[in-house]
Amino acid sequence: MTTRREALQFSLAGALLAALPRGWAAVADGPMKRAIPRSGQQIPVVGLGSSATFSQLAGSQEIGALREVIAELARLGGTVFDTAPSYGASEQVAGDIARELKLTDAMFWATKVNVAGRGGGAADPAAARAQIESSFAKLGKQPIDLIQVHNLGDVPVQLGILKELRETGRVRHIGVTTTFPAQYPQLIEVMQAEPLDFIGIDYAIDNRAIEERILPLAQEKGIAVMVYLPFGRTRLWERMRGKDLPDWAAEIDAVSWAQFFLKFVLAHPAVTVVTPATSKAKHMADNLGAAYGRLPDAAMRERMIGHIAGL
Ligand SMILES: NC(=O)c1ccc[n+]([C@@H]2O[C@H](COP(=O)([O-])OP(=O)(O)OC[C@H]3O[C@@H](n4cnc5c(N)ncnc54)[C@H](OP(=O)(O)O)[C@@H]3O)[C@@H](O)[C@H]2O)c1
Predict the structure, then answer these.
(1) Residue 18: which H helix or E strand, with range?
(2) Exposed/middle/buried for 276, CB within 10 Å: 0-12, 13-18, 19+?
(3) Which protein residue's CA is at the shortest distance from atom 36 of ligand 1?
(4) CA nearest ligand 1 atom 21, residue
(5) What is the Cα–Cα distance from 286 to 254, expressed in whole angstroms?
(6) Which of 71, 147, 215, 279 has the least C-beta neighbours within 10 A?
(7) SS3 for 106?
(8) What count of other Cβ atoms lies within 10 Å of the Cβ of residue 38?
């Protein structure tokens, strides 16, 4: 016998499904999730980044659109939000919106620390600690799910502080980030020497340098990979302008170029999560769509690379 409560739940699920774009039949199970190797925590494979267009809007008075983006992330089962103290008002604005929408504890907050400045400067430990405390105040969650050393700034000092915070339970996961190929050799050294939970790094269908050493090393060491710049910010959009998605994208359940690019990235077994930035709720829904349906196999990935290279 179906109880009244079950019937209500069923009709709510039906209403949610009806409100979603077509082709998302698997949505009832929520987005695809992957485990963070060191903690076992499962997180949805598509999240939201907050530099680029998100931070531009966060810096304006027009934050209503960002409220819709974060609400859409949550509505479709997403939780991962990547930010940094250096992304203008993004960290503060997202923290405020999440509080308002009562999402603070449900979110997987990934923020960063860096007071070392550009060009390999030294970080003042007191300033680094103050920046981290400011992130706690802005985001409002303890422990914070992930803090990474931004752009490998003064790793001995800043990662040292993060290790201590992980030890005392104030931060769940720690890591380092870079999106500069010139820093990849240093990144590899840090991955080999330090007990990292995560790296954050650039990866896209037309930017695959990390497949050679960094992604295999992450798998070997059990380090989760958070992918940045899956669209190369504007690079892939400029390349695709006016071009139709090939019919065979349906074989991997991709209904847009965004899903084509995100599914390519997610098909690499070392990748844990990808966090494209957006300032538009409809793009958020489109991006989360990549966490549903099939992913390309090796042969399909080659076909996808060839297709993009030929455009
Ligand atoms: N060193 C680091 O730690 C580091 C460095 C770089 C990036 N990151 C992180 O990675 C995140 C992602 O990188 P990114 O923001 O630079 O670049 P990105 O995610 O590759 O691209 C963002 C751009 O794509 C557009 N876009 C997003 N979804 C779309 C869709 N479905 N259809 C069409 N256009 C779409 C956005 O514009 P709309 O607003 O119009 O959607 C925005 O212009 C950052 O936000 C940040 O959190 C970290």
Answers:
(1) helix 4-19
(2) buried
(3) 278
(4) 233
(5) 10
(6) 71
(7) coil
(8) 17
CA of 283 to the centre of ligand 1 (A): 11
The predicted-structure confidence for 94-141, as pLDDT tens digits, reads as follows 999 999 999 999 999 999 999 997 777 999 999 999 999 999 999 999
Q: Which atom of ligand 1 is nearest to the CA of 259?
A: 31
Count of C-beta atoms within a 10 Å radius of residue 53: 19
Nearest CA to ligand 1 atom 34: 283
In sequence order, the β-bridge partners of residue 227 are 201, 274
Report the pocket of ligand 1 as residue ranges, CB < 6 Å: 49-53, 82, 112, 150-151, 177-179, 200, 228-234, 237, 258, 275-280, 283, 286-287
Determine contact, residues 174/163, Cβ cutoff 8 Å. yes
Distance 231 CA to ligand 1 centre (A): 7
Q: Which two tokens stand for residue 199?
A: 């790296």
- pLDDT 10s digits, 218-274: 999 999 999 999 999 999 999 999 999 999 999 999 999 999 999 999 999 999 999
Q: What is the DSSP string of 161-217?
A: HHHHHHHTTSEEEEEEEE--GGGHHHHHHHHHHS--SEEEEE-BTTB-GGGTTHHHH
Q: From the CB of residue 283, how many other CB atoms can be counted at a distance below 10 Å?
A: 18
Q: Which helix (H) or strand (E) holds 293?
A: none
Buried b / exposed e over 95-122, threshold 16 CB at 10 Å, is bbbbeeeebbeebbbbbbbbbbeeeeee
